[in-house]
Amino acid sequence: MSDANSPQDWNALAERVACHVDNYLNGLEAVARGDGGAHTIPLLLLEVSQVILAGAQLGASADVILPDNWEPEIGDDPDLDAVRTGLSERLGDLDEYVEVFDPYKDTEPTAYRLSDDLVDVASDLVHGLRHYNQDRPLEALWWWQYSYFNHWGNHAGASLRALHAYVANDRLAVAQEAAVAQ
């Protein structure tokens, strides 16, 4: 990435992030509808991993500063409760997990729900995407970067660890069972 922070550089980053955001939102909605079937957890792991790449790009970039130091109004964000409910139904008992939210400040594990975390990420991302779709890429980047550091990055990271743990435990259990059977 360039350190130039030119509008052209910001536009290119905004386009890359918007693509990741759009893919995440579409993938999350598809899984919430049940399109993932038996592959729900691995698909969610893939979606979260890919959107975390966008977050890493935002984190590695210089701070996005709005010229007027304020965010233009874009109206109410869409209601994502149907996605949250669909994910909760698909995840079942796997929806709840335990996480230490900030390993540098927290000492006690806290219970979380994957469906809540995944939709919290989506909510922050869709807000920025609305700026992007209204031809305001700098505002979109500012929001995505700010909310990545302040909110959705933590929720995406926590859900990634939970999803990874499930997939890894599932795959390792199968490998261990196959080894015992031989």
From TrEMBL:
It comes from the Bacteria. InterPro entries: DUF5063, DUF5063_sf. Gene3D superfamilies: Protein of unknown function DUF5063 (1.20.120.1550). Pfam families: DUF5063. This is DUF5063 domain-containing protein. The lineage of its organism: Bacteria, Bacillati, Actinomycetota, Actinomycetes, Streptosporangiales.
